[in-house]
Amino acid sequence: MNKMVQFVKESYAELRKVVWPSRDDVISSVKVVIVSTLIIAGVLGLVDVVLLLGVQAIF
Predict the structure, then answer these.
(1) Residue 35, by phi and psi: left (phi above 0), alpha (psi -120 to 50) or beta?
(2) How many Cα atoms occupy the beta-carbon half-sphere of 38 within 13 Å?
(3) What does the pLDDT look like over 21-36, one tens digit per residue?
(4) How far apart are CA 4 and CA 11, in angstroms?
(5) What is the pTM of this model?
(6) Separation of alpha carbons 23 and 43, rounded Å
(7) Which of 12, 25, 43, 45 qualifies as a cystine partner to 21, CB 3.0-4.6 A?
(8) Which residues contact 29 (CB under 8 A, 6 or more apart)?
(9) Quick check: 1 pLDDT over 90?
């Protein structure tokens, strides 16, 4: 039981050391992730269409 209490205390102490990002940092990071996801999805969709048309042309 002592080890569990010690673990919780140490975990809490470590969490107090964390530098949490600001709201603006989080929002800008989310924007970057969304835009990059949309770009990659578009590129993969384009590659899929090109490969589909290539396979249909062959067969």
Answers:
(1) alpha
(2) 5
(3) 999 999 999 999 999 9
(4) 10
(5) 0.67
(6) 30
(7) 25
(8) 21
(9) no
